[in-house]
C-alpha cells in the first residue's frame, strides 16, 4: 500500500501539479480554497451536525417512506401517478446527472486532498487519537454526509412512479436511513481511513449513477450486473480495511474513530447480506435484464445500493 500511495503522490503532487495549470486549478478549488482548507466540523454548530438534526432527519425520512409505501399498496397504479411520465423521466435524469457530477467531485476532491495533505499511507490508515475533523479531508467527508441526505430524493422519485414493479424495498429504505447515521458517526469521531472510503465509494457511485442516468434517458446498459458486483466487492473490502485499522489500533498508540468502525462492521455485514440476497434473486435464476420498469429505470434502481460510506 505504501508503494501505491507514494507512487500516486509523486505522480500527482510532485509531477503533474507543478507543470499543469489544470491540475493547479483543481488543487486550489478542491484542496486549498479557504472554505475547504479552513473547514472545521463542530457538533451543534456546523450545518447538519447536531444530534437533533440527525434524529429528526432520519425519523422524517422513515415516516415519509412508510406513508409513501402505504400509498402505493392501498391505491391503484392509475391513482398513484401524480407526475406525468415524461416529467418524471426528466426529473429522474436531472437527479442522476447531479449525483453523478457530485460523486465525481467528491472522489476527485477527497482523493486529491489525501495525496496533498497526508505524508504517507500510515497517516491514512490510522489517524492519531483525538484527531479533530477539520481541513480538506473532513470538508469532503462532510459533503459526502450531506449528499446522503440529498439521496433521500431517490425514495421520492420511486414513490412518484406508478410502476407496480418499483415498490420501496426494505433494502432501499434501510440503506438510505442507516448510511446517514454512519456518515455522521464517522465525521464526529474523525474516523481513520474514512476519507479513502469516501473516494472509493464515490468512484463506485460515478458508475452507478451513470447507469441510472442512462436508464432514465431510455437506454438500457447491458452491464447492470457490474454495478451490483462492484458494490458487493466494496463491502468485502471493508472487512480488510477494518482488520487493518484494528490491528494498527491495538498494536500501536491507537487510531481515531475505532468505535465508529465497530458500528460500520455491523452495518456493512447487514447490508452485505441484503445485497447478496438481492444478487441471488436478480441473477441466480437467469432473470438479469428482464425486469425493466416502464419509466426506463430498472428494478435495481428501486434497491439503490450504497455504500458503504
From TrEMBL:
GO biological process, one term: fatty acid elongation, monounsaturated fatty acid
GO cellular component: endoplasmic reticulum membrane
Annotated localization: Membrane
Main location class: membrane
Upper taxonomic lineage: Eukaryota, Viridiplantae, Streptophyta, Embryophyta, Tracheophyta
The protein's name in its UniProt record: Very-long-chain 3-oxoacyl-CoA synthase
Presence of the UniProt keyword Membrane in the record: yes
Classification via InterPro entries: ELO_CS, ELO_fam
Membrane-related topology note: Multi-pass membrane protein
Alphabetical UniProt keywords: Fatty acid biosynthesis, Fatty acid metabolism, Lipid biosynthesis, Lipid metabolism, Membrane, Transferase, Transmembrane, Transmembrane helix
GO terms, molecular function: fatty acid elongase activity
Keyword NADP annotated: no
Transmembrane segments: 47-68, 97-118, 193-214, 226-246, 258-276
